[in-house]
Amino acid sequence: MKSLVCLFAALSLGLTPLLGQDTESPLNATLLVKTRQPGALINRNIYGQFSEHLGHCIYEGVWVGEDSPIPNTRGIRNDVVAALKALKVPVLRWPGGCFADEYHWKDGIGPRDQRPSMINTHWGGVTENNAFGTHEFMDFCEQIGAQPYICGNLGSGTVQEMMEWVEYMTSGSQSPMADLRRKNGREDPWKVRFFGVGNESWGCGGDMPPEFYAQNFLRYNTFVKDYSANRVYRIACGANGTDYKWTETLMAAAGRHCNGLSLHYYCGTGRVSHSATQFSEGDWIYLLNSASRMEEIVSRHAQIMDRYDPEKKVGLIVDEWGTWHNVEPATNPGFLYQQNTLRDALVAGLTLNIFNRHCDRVQMANIAQLVNVLQAMILTDKEKMILTPTYHVFEMYSVHQNASLLPADVASPEYSLDDQAIPAVTASASRDNGGKVHISLTNADPHHPINLSGVLDGMEATSVSGRLLTAPAIYSYNSFTAPNTVQPAVLEGAKIEGGKLSVTLPPKSVVVLEVQ
């Protein structure tokens, strides 16, 4: 039924109904994995998440309150917690986003019935009651097993406010802020390793030129203190996409004073349809091509950073990335609620391959966003919850977390349509602590299977198994009435013969192989 609904929608819009029943003849690709040349560690924080006070990400997505009929632990949804624990979320960014630079943390502590309300001027103009604040966020991180990444208010906040928030969270001393934390029910300080000094200061965080932000970063950063045993990894606001001047300016002025420099890049939806679910093959390749630009963007920012930091002490932190479509019909346009199709899963797979390959510089990435917003892992509707195709990619790729990068060279056929062209196959590979090699692959071609032959140089491989994510159509998605339309399956037919790997990648698919 779901496929028929997708087909009808496509035909009604004049779109090509790529259901995948009649695939064309296979194409060929080759892969060389150099197991003798392990590279940098793939920091598990590359698989990080982002949660902003935006739409129904926090309220209804994470927080339902202790009196809710939805099963919860101290007000936090049990089903969402279980799904995120299974995803092995390493780090979670909060409270924004643009919201961070209008958020005053003291409004979100103490008895909930005494917390002042605020207007979320960035996202929908709704009134928030501050029921979800520092203590609730830290509780959420502890429940899912993630490290907190706090984004501080540089745009509308004071130096003192930022300094006191760090003290409140991390100081074990007898001090005003630590004592206030104890009064509010938390005796021991939290470990807060990651702290962002402002967000998008070139835009919603203050419309600052890079020189002005660099001066402000140096000032605010001076008062982001290390209390007790806590050591803060300080992240400066970095560039918007291809703004290489911003990176040049920040590295020259403040590179010696930060541990990380952020980068934001969202890929557009298409040239014709901006819908998340109703689009043509032209929109499909346009979005995948847009996502593929992350390779050039990361490379060029890394080259600038290399000039000022050849020892790579400063991490590139891609703490906002993903797809951005029109909101779903009949939803608040300020809530950025969009569906999530197989197209989004391919974007996630090829982007994570890029981050893995650049793990010598990319030390964290945070897809936008966790629940109910943009390219979400999870969608909720009251008591219902579904996992998106992007969730499944993150779960499949979790095998790369803290594994050693292995160079993976792909000779791929080209997938092209009209004036757009990209390699059909992308890949990344790693070896975990147990010696297993994992290879993640995407096939962006919606028509052709790809027969991939591979050599694992330096490894006497004897067995291979795999998992596959694909679906009937390029616009297939999981809904509350059909929650399992797009989900992983066992990959059949992968072989190791004479030490050589052979596998067929179905059209429009993401594949993860395990080789021993």
Structure summarized in a few sentences:
With 516 residues, the protein is of the alpha/beta class.
Named CATH architecture of the largest domain: Alpha-Beta Barrel
Question: What is the arithmetic mean of pLDDT?
Answer: 95
Structural class label = alpha/beta
Low-confidence stretches: 1-17
Distance between the termini: 40 Å
Q: What helical percentage do the residues reach?
A: 10-25%
Main-sheet strand order equals 2-5-8-9-10-11-12-13
Q: What is the overall number of helices?
A: 11
Shape descriptor reads: globular
**CATH homologous superfamily descriptor of the largest domain:** Glycosidases
Tally of strands: 27
CATH class of the largest domain, named Alpha Beta
How much of the sequence lies in strands comes to 25-35%
CATH topology of the largest domain: TIM Barrel
Radius of gyration: 23 Å
Taking the sheet with the most strands, its summary is: 8 strands, parallel, barrel
In words, what does this structure look like?
- The protein is an alpha/beta fold and 516 residues long.
- It has two domains: 2-38 and 407-515, Golgi alpha-mannosidase II (Immunoglobulin-like); 44-288 and 319-403, TIM Barrel (Alpha-Beta Barrel).
- Helices cover 25% and strands 26% of the residues.
- The chain has helices at 2-12, 78-87, 134-144, 159-170, 176-183, 210-222, 244-254, 281-292, 294-308, 342-357, 389-397, and strands spanning 27-34, 48-50, 72-73, 76-77, 91-94, 118-120, 126-128, 147-152, 194-197, 233-240, 260-267, 315-323, 362-368, 378-381, 384-387, 404-406, 408-411, 414-417, 420-423, 425-431, 437-443, 450-457, 464-469, 489-490, 495-497, 500-505, 509-515.
- Strands 2-5-8-9-10-11-12-13 form an eight-stranded parallel β-barrel, surrounded by six helices. Strands 16-20-21-27-23-24 form a six-stranded antiparallel sheet, with helices on one face. Strands 17-1-22-26-25 form a five-stranded mixed sheet, with no helix packed on it.
- Strand 14 and strand 15 form a beta hairpin.
- Helix 4 (159-170) packs across helix 5, helix 6 (210-222) packs parallel to helix 7 (244-254) and helix 10 runs parallel beside helix 11.
- The chain is globular, with a radius of gyration of 23 Å.
